[in-house]
Amino acid sequence: MTTVGVGVLTFDHIRTGRQEDFWRTWNSIQNTGHEAEILVLTNGSTDGTQDVVRDLGGIVDDTRSEIWYGNQRLVNELAHNDIVVLSADDLEYQDGWLERVVAFVEAAPAEFALLSAYIEPVWDWNQPRTAIEYGGQRAVIRDSVCGSSWIFRGEDWKRWMGPFPRIFPGEDLHICNRVRDRGCTMAALDLVEHIGVERSAWGNQSHTYATPFDRQAWGLTDAA
User: Fold this and answer.
1) Are the C-beta atoms of residues 26 and 40 closer than 8 Å to each other?
2) Sign of the alpha-carbon torsion through 100, 79, 162, 146
3) Closest CA to 185 of 143, 154, 215
4) What string of pLDDT tens digits covers the 224 residues of the chain?
5) Residues 147-173, buried b or exposed e (16+ Cβ, 10 A)?
6) Coil, helix or strand for 217?
């Protein structure tokens, strides 16, 4: 059976008013429909988030507080799996979401190296290009996919995709560029709702100038 490691990165979700977002993420992400190793991590939290993570059996690593470090630590813990999923703490997952991810990855060519569970709004850097289907799952090929919801093969990360550059912001764009330079493809499935889009822990306001994604035009009308 395909093995999957799922990592959730959270940061100061109490101070930033994202506590409910975190619990909706954490509870919904358990409804996988496929066996998974699920791990939560925080790095640099000082508002009690670290205690929540400890109570859940997760990892508190305060070596550095940047996103790249937290995600890299999660990958280090999970990359022994066939598939790795990295998630932010403000995404509500559809029931059986991981079963659908595995169906797509198992059926898709290896060139589909970096996926997302989230259909983002549209900006200049993530234009949608083509709708495709593998394993009965529809996805949209895009110029980039957001680092808050990534899916990739553990072996790809170890052989050529990783590690994260030690920069913030822009660490996810660097990996997307690496995938593109290798001639591989990025695509997004429609498996989550971004419930915390207006409450970024890092002050990200890019949603204020995004163009909504037209699900109907791309054949995603059954999305939750």
Assistant:
1) yes
2) positive
3) 143
4) 999 999 999 999 999 999 999 999 999 999 999 999 999 999 999 999 999 999 999 999 999 999 999 999 999 999 999 999 999 999 999 999 999 999 999 999 999 999 999 999 998 999 999 999 999 999 999 999 999 999 999 999 999 999 999 998 889 999 999 999 999 999 999 999 999 865 666 555 565 657 999 999 999 865 44
5) bbbbbbbbbbbeeebbebeeeeeebbb
6) helix
- Centre a 10 Å sphere on the Cβ of residue 126 and count the other Cβ atoms it contains: 20
Q: How many domains does the chain contain in total? A: 1
Type of residue numbered 68: W
Beta carbons of 129 and 97 less than 8 angstroms apart: no
How far is residue 65 from each of residues 19, 39, 43, 86, 178, measured CA to CA in Å?
Answer: 19, 18, 5, 17, 24
223 belongs to a structural domain: no
Contact of 201 with 11, CB cutoff 8 Å:
yes
> Does residue 53 lie within any of the structural domains?
yes
> Residue 96: which CATH number?
3.90.550.10
Phi and psi torsions of 185, nearest 5°? -120, 145
- Beta strand 83-87 with 91-93 is unpaired
User: Would residue 181 count as lying in a domain?
Assistant: yes
Domain extent, residue 14, equals 4-217
**What does the DSSP 8-state code read for residue 75?**
H
